Each structure stands twice: as structure tokens, then as C-alpha cells.
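Justification of resources, computational component.

The compute hours requested in this renewal are based largely on the per-chain cost of generating structure records like the one below. Each record pairs the submitted sequence with a full C-alpha cell output. That output is archived, and it is also reused by downstream analysis tasks.
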Amino acid sequence: MFVHELIRQGNPEDTAIYQENRVIRYGELNTAVTNCRNYLYATGVRLGDRVAIYSRNCAEYICTYMAIASLGAIVVPVNFQLSMRETAFILKNAGIHHLITYKHLDLDAAINLHDYDGGVQQIDIKTCCQPAGAEPAPALPKDFRADESCVIIYTSGTTGSPKGAVLSHRNLTSDAEMFSKVLHIGSADNVLCVLPMYHCFAWTCSVLNALFCGAAITILDSFTPKETIEVIRTKKISVIYVVPSICALLTKLAQPEDLASIRYTIIGGTTLPLTIAKNYKAKFGVDIMEGYGLSEASPVVAVNPPERVKVGSIGPVLPGIAIRITAADGTEVPDGASGELLIQGANVMHGYWKQPEATEEALRDGWLHTGDIARRDADGYLYIVDRLKDMIISMGENIYPREIEELVYAFPGIREAAVIGIEDRLRGQAGCCYYSVQGGDTVNVRALKKYLQQNLALYKIPREFRQIDELPKTSTSKIAKKELVKMYAAERKQ
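The structure output for this chain reads:
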């Protein structure tokens, strides 16, 4: 199956998209995609071209994405919150000549056109979805297969410039299909899309899986608590894909009746603090189903099944995905032991765009090396212990920040917490815990340290504790540990 064929899964008379006061049925969506396809072909988009989408969440995002894919071109979603320098890097790296955008960008200052052959044609996203009457674009070649590239998703990376994960039509549709075998979503469901569509979690789960199941998608262009709660209540939203911080705000601000229509609450993007899961379930009577994925895997790898949720676990792997958990020497570890999580499946990327060495490193021996430390229990449920790159090594001992963070989150008065590794002359590395507090509360650091000493080995206790008003976040509401590392370095220089 091709990605653009997903819009044919729903009944033509059923609602495909709600956005504000707009209602778009599946039949109307198909017509809009065809018109957009013809328009883009007329502007010069051809098979294999990379076409960028720079936009907030909207119905036109879905329309243009499907139109691009139907031409055999490759979609390049761009985070609209990036700086012009970062945006320019993606456009140049992917060789973008057509940019579909919700606002005009001043690219001249960011892209040296002398070094960039052909320039960039900017196309208004609403315009390209409205025209009708253009000459019909030709059908895809008969030898065009589902293994052809469909999208390049640029990952932030840990060092250097972002890498573009190349995903095929088969990668994306197979992941949406595998996901549907665990979460039983149907045409009666209304799925909220509030996380940004440029992010693979929102795109595959809130959009592709919903289309695959013939469900309705309710679009919000961003998360604001009051509007989100209002939409959930009035639109009878039944499925939400969010991040833990959104769950915490819903718990604080919504009433049980506001979320009465919710069947599934699925989180991804970052680990779920147990306190947030417990409070959400107590107030709304709904489990938060934690899942796990990464851009290189389209992205969903595992999720808790609704019939048996294990809080603290990311659930079993999706049907059709194989995993290994390995020690540093490559040998598999037994259940209960921790090691790097490796993945095989139809959802795994082709590689990184124009980065053969990085591709070879990530896809060694036919397995995607995730860089995540995991363990598996006797029931096949997985637990992410930490990121391999986040691991702190102190006097030869491995310290996983998540273990510490879970305890800090449970301490009275703590709102958010993150532990980063810092240099230590004696131990090599130590931990620094940044935290924020609930409004009006105070936290006694001495009491916090004593509490941690009662629950952790002494070598795991962070060397430093720093309270700040708000922990920095990424565009998808994850705690931005890289920013904390920069903040710590800047503070040390003062």
C-alpha cells in the first residue's frame, strides 16, 4: 500500500477531518488531494523531487502531504519553530526547490543562492489545496513500488547537524497497520491531533493510523489547555496522542466529565513519570498507555495494549517487529537484564539521507541500533531504562538518570525534574539535578537528598541540585536536556 492510498480507507460520506468549524468528508478529501496533485505537478513537482512542508497543523497539511506522495515525490516536513539557519540547512541538505508554507519565509538571508542551484519556489499551503481545473497529472509509473522513499524526517541528533531518516511508503503504512492490531480504532472514533504534524509520532499515530482505520481526525494547530479541554468535551474525542506534560495539565485543569469520551490516552516522545500516570488514572479512570518509538522506525515500536497496561513499561513490541537486547559485546542478555535495544521490521528506515557512514553505524548487521537501554520482563513487556548517550559513568559505575528522575518526581512539591551528566575530577562524571516546583511550594534540598539516599546507592545521588522556574522544552514538549547542559556550562563560566 502507498501512503496516499490511506485516504481511500474511509467511507466517502464519513467525516475525515474536523478543524474549527470545518468538516471534511473522506470523499471531499480525495477530491482535494487530486486537485492539489494536479496543481503541484503543474508547478514542476516531479517523481523523486524533495518537497518541503513548513506549516502548523491544518487540514491542508494532510492534503499536500498526500498529493506530494501521490506524485512519487518525497515529503520533507520542517519544524516551523526552527531558526532560519536550521531551516536553511534542511532545505539545502535535502535539495529542496519547492517549499509549501503557511507563511512566506525570507530565505535570501539564510541561503546563499550562489551555492544553491535553482533557488526555492515558495507555495502557499492554502492556495495549492484550493485550485481545481489544472491538467490531470500522470499516474505513477507501473514499476513504482511501496519500497520507494516517501519522506525524509530530520532528527535533531545528539551532536552536529541533523540527520534525515529516509522512510518508504511501506515503512509508514506497515507501522500504521501494525499499530492498529494493538489499538482497535474504528470509523466511530474521533482522534485528536494536537501534537505537531511535522513530528513522526503525531503523523503516524494521529493521522496515518486514523486514516488507515477510517476514523475522524480533529485538528488543533497547537496545545492550549483551555481550548484542548473544550474540544475534547464538545467533539467527543475518543483517542488522544500526547506527551506527559499535557497529561499533567489535563489532570490539573480538566474535570472528569470533560474527558468522559476518552477511550485511549497514548503517550510517546519521552518517558512517563509514574506520578503523572497515577494521578491521571485516579481522576479520569483511564490508563495512560505508554508507547515507544523513534523516527528511524516510522516511529512506533511498542505500546501498552489497552487490555493490560503496565505503568512504567512501554509495552510489548508491535506485531511484526523483532527485537534484541544486547550487551556492549553484542551478546543478547536474558530477560530482566538491561542492554541496548535493537530492532528489525518493515517499519525500519532505509537509512540517513546522504550519510552512508551514519547509516552503516545505525543499521549494523541488519538491525537498527536505537541507542536506548531497555529490559524485558517475563511477559514480554519492555522498559526503557535510559538513553545510551544519557548514561552517566561514575567511577566505572553506570548511572541511568531516569531512575533518579522517577524518585525526584515523587518527592512532595516537585513539578518536573531532569538529571544530566557533569564532569567530576574524582569520579569522571557525576549528576546534576535540575528541577522546578509546584506553584507556591518549596523544596528542602537537604530533605530531598536524604530521601534519595534512602532509595538509591550513594554513587547515584546527584552532586548538584538546581531549582529553576521552568525546565526548557523541545518543540514536542520534551524536556530539553541539551539546553540544560548548555545552561550548566554557562553557569560554570560566570
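Residues 92 and 116 are 7 Å apart (CA to CA). The chain has two domains: 1-387, 391-493.
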